[in-house]
Amino acid sequence: MTTATIRPGDRRVSPVFLGILAVTAVTGWATWTGFAAQPGVAVFLFVTAAWVVSLCLHEYAHARTALHGGDVSVGAKGYLTLNPMKYTHALLSVVLPVLFVIMGGIGLPGGAVFIERGRIRGRWRHSLISAAGPLTNVLFAVVCTAPFWLDALDGVPADFRFALAFLALLQVTAAILNFLPVPGLDGYGVVEPWLSHGVRRQVEPFAPFGLLFVFALLWLPAVNGAFFGVVDSLLDALGIHEFDTYCGYELFRFWRDTDGLCSVSP
């Protein structure tokens, strides 16, 4: 087992992450004020940047929890800097989740941090490390939906409301899907420490394909309809109507012709 220490630079927030935050802030402002000539472009950039921010926070939560659980190697790997380029698959960490959003309006996970599980002692700690990521999506969803369930939307421009509703949908779908007990997803990581060694060995070969399996299932109309039925019910309970998320997705896909149902800023 290797040893590692946490240096001050290992915790320093990456300029890459700060840049993504800046894009989120600027495009959020452009969406709010109607500054952009094409509001759909501003919405696309705002939602995409905010989605990548949530991905970074998701993986940071895994790494930070692992650090407190005993894996000090996460610092040297750069996982505590919130830099998505430090993840196990840097390209897939950003590109794949964004493609999932564009293709189906679904918040599926992308990048991953490598935790040295041999450093972690106790099944509860292993489960908590896996749960920390999707719990971050839950927190992000609470923040996104707060203006709706607090009835604090007076004066909020329609485009920004639609964008926020669609971003909330992504966080809710990400939380639900991540908690599925499917090999390769965080939900399986939560239950894996409690399974027998034989079961874990039988399931292990399927882990690399778990995410693709879930995505393929969601392309089936029956599964897709049932899944989004649950998502829409949760969002409706939080004050977000299906019309808001629909218009957010329509604005997000600015390159497509709209059907005119949504109120879009001139």
What would you say about this model in short?
Helices cover 63% and strands 0% of the residues. It is mostly helical and 266 residues long. Helix 2 crosses helix 11 and helix 5 runs antiparallel to helix 6.
Structure description:
The chain is mostly helical and 266 residues long. 63% of the residues lie in helices and 0% in strands. The protein is built from eleven helices and no strands. The protein has helices at residues 15-33, 39-69, 73-76, 90-104, 123-149, 158-178, 186-191, 197-203, 210-218, 221-237, 242-252. The radius of gyration is 19 Å and the shape is globular. Belongs to the peptidase M50B family. It is found in: Cell membrane. This is Site-2 protease family protein.
Low-confidence stretches: none
Largest sheet: none
* Overall helicity: 55-70%
What's the shape?
globular
Radius of gyration: 19 Å
Average pLDDT across residues?
A: 88
Strand content: under 5%
Please tag this protein with its features.
single chain, 266 residues, mainly alpha, 11 helices
Task: Produce the secondary structure layout.
Elements: H1 15-33, H2 39-69, H3 73-76, H4 90-104, H5 123-149, H6 158-178, H7 186-191, H8 197-203, H9 210-218, H10 221-237, H11 242-252
Helix pairs in contact: 1-2, 2-4, 2-5, 2-6, 2-11, 5-6, 6-10, 6-11
